[in-house]
Amino acid sequence: MRTSLLDGKVAANYGPVFGNTVKQGFYKVDLGKATAINEVRTWSFNQNGNRGTQRFTLFGSTADSDPGWNVADPKLFTALAEVAAEAAQRFLATSVRRAAGRPLGTFRRLVGTTLPVTAKAENTAFQEFQVLPARPIQQE
User: Which of 4, 42, 44, 107 could be 60's S-S partner, Cβ–Cβ 3.0 to 4.6 Å?
Assistant: First the structure.
């Protein structure tokens, strides 16, 4: 089983999935420094035909030190997007971005809080997270 969501690989397996009945799982990405973010992409595998659906909320934090996990604290985290996407194929890809190429914001860390995707409280088989930095504005 894979243990990283930041290795550039998508596989037909569970990946680093949260166990059944985990009502809210947290994935955290530390970018190492405050970074202007253009887009966040996620991939999941529809393991057993029921774990490809993605239900998560994406948060950003500018805190220099680890802000912990309390994403409800507006002093530490900014809510960026809620994603609810049904998997119709073997793999599902989602993208969080703003219109007209504007950045999502500048953050040091991103946290995705996940919710179960089946009536049995099974969780998504996430395969990969990709954070794309914003490009510098070109001066004419």
Answer: 107
Residue at 38 is within a domain: yes
Per-residue pLDDT of the chain (140 residues; tens, 9 = 90+): 456 898 889 999 998 899 999 999 999 999 999 999 999 999 999 999 999 999 999 999 999 999 999 999 999 999 999 999 999 999 999 999 999 889 999 999 999 999 999 999 999 999 999 999 998 766 66
CATH number at residue 116: 2.60.120.260
Domain that holds residue 44: 25-133
Domain count, the chain: 1
- Residue located via tokens 């002093």: 75
Quick one: tokens of 28?
């955290």
90 vs 93: CA distance, rounded Å: 10
C-alpha–C-alpha distance, residues 111 and 116, integer Å: 16
Structure-block tokens of residue 15:
């990946």
Which neighbouring-strand residues pair with 29?
110
